[in-house]
Amino acid sequence: MPAPECTDILPPPPAFTTMEALRTACTTLPAPDSAARQVIAARDATLTKPPGSLGRLEALVAWLGAWQGRPDPMLDRVRVVIFAGNHGVVAQGVSPWPASVTAQMIGNFAAGGAAINQIARSAGATLRVVPLAGLAPTADFTQAPALDDDAFLDAVSAGHAAVEADMDLLCLGEMGIGNTTAAAAMAAGLFGGSGHDWAGRGTGLDAAGVAHKARVIDAALARHADVRHDPLAVARCLGGRELAAILGAVLAARHRRIPVLLDGFVCTAAAAPLACLNPSGLAHTTLAHRSAEAGHAALARALNLSPLLELDLRLGEATGAALAVPLLRAAVACHAGMATFAQAGVSERT
Ligand SMILES: O=C(O)c1ccc[n+]([C@@H]2O[C@H](COP(=O)([O-])O)[C@@H](O)[C@H]2O)c1
Ligand SMILES: Cc1cc2nc[nH]c2cc1C
């Protein structure tokens, strides 16, 4: 008699139960497959084009293949994951929108009515939305750490668990009213500077609103000045649940050798602690776009990330990441489908 089918109804155990276990996972990271990269470079040199003439598309194919461990990179299973959370700092008037919009937009994602639903479908990607802790807000980080150790590790573990092993490419994004304040506070905590240097308009603040947001960030930086030397403590005290989950997902993808497309300012700030803990920590990621949010260009520079697209988006919800997928598909199609000089009977360079 066949064994009954077993359905796992319990959530997986948390990936990380101590900060030290998480720190170790962030510092001991696998390298890309250099053999796959070499095979890709060798084929690229035979294709009917001047060497290097497909510019960054050539580098993208090599990047995909090196992390997938395949000389023939695939984009059959492209997944968009949006993490959602709420922020206590919204009580300080840092967003023009009420916190209730976070839950309402999750309803909109589920109904298929958001921008990301359309972009993910047109990019041939599946979409998953992961609300964190029932959308319970973090503490207002001008008054206390946003999260205690356990809540932070739970959120990182939830992000880690959301990365299934069988993805070819992971596009990350977020939804959370108030989270551009958390992202700006994290950027300042990790890379220095004040609220003025990192605060932007978010979902539509005017100049006075941005100045107020900068003062709120300065208050948070003053309260948590003691954690600036520790990237994980910065993420715990000044970040939020969806940002912690993005960190966990970027880490899980690295350990599974899954290439990642990062979205805008919030997503980049969330992933940044990994680069601060390990100089090659974000090597398996590509920054899909440069958001119109004021601090994003500086944050990308600080992380040595060069965005693929500049479309003045400032939406979040992984829209920029999903928009870069067709570019990757085109790059892979060229690499796989182009004729070689020998096949096409085209003379090589003299
Ligand atoms: O990541 C970005 O580049 C970005 C820039 C501006 C706005 N957002 C989105 O807007 C929300 C946060 O904006 P705010 O003004 O409430 O802090 C959140 O849901 C983000 O997905 C995201
Ligand atoms: C309507 C709305 C949609 C969003 N999507 C991501 N962040 C958002 C913020 C708002 C306010």
From TrEMBL:
Annotated active site: 317 (proton acceptor)
Record bears the keyword Glycosyltransferase: yes
Enzyme class of the recorded protein, top EC level: transferase
Keywords: Cobalamin biosynthesis, Glycosyltransferase, Transferase
Record-linked SUPFAM superfamilies: Nicotinate mononucleotide:5,6-dimethylbenzimidazole phosphoribosyltransferase (CobT)
Pathway: Nucleoside biosynthesis; alpha-ribazole biosynthesis; alpha-ribazole from 5,6-dimethylbenzimidazole: step 1/2
Domain of life: Bacteria
Keyword check for Transferase: yes
Catalytic activity: 5,6-dimethylbenzimidazole + nicotinate beta-D-ribonucleotide = alpha-ribazole 5'-phosphate + nicotinate + H(+)
Family note: Belongs to the CobT family.
Role this protein plays: Catalyzes the synthesis of alpha-ribazole-5'-phosphate from nicotinate mononucleotide (NAMN) and 5,6-dimethylbenzimidazole (DMB).
Protein name: Nicotinate-nucleotide--dimethylbenzimidazole phosphoribosyltransferase
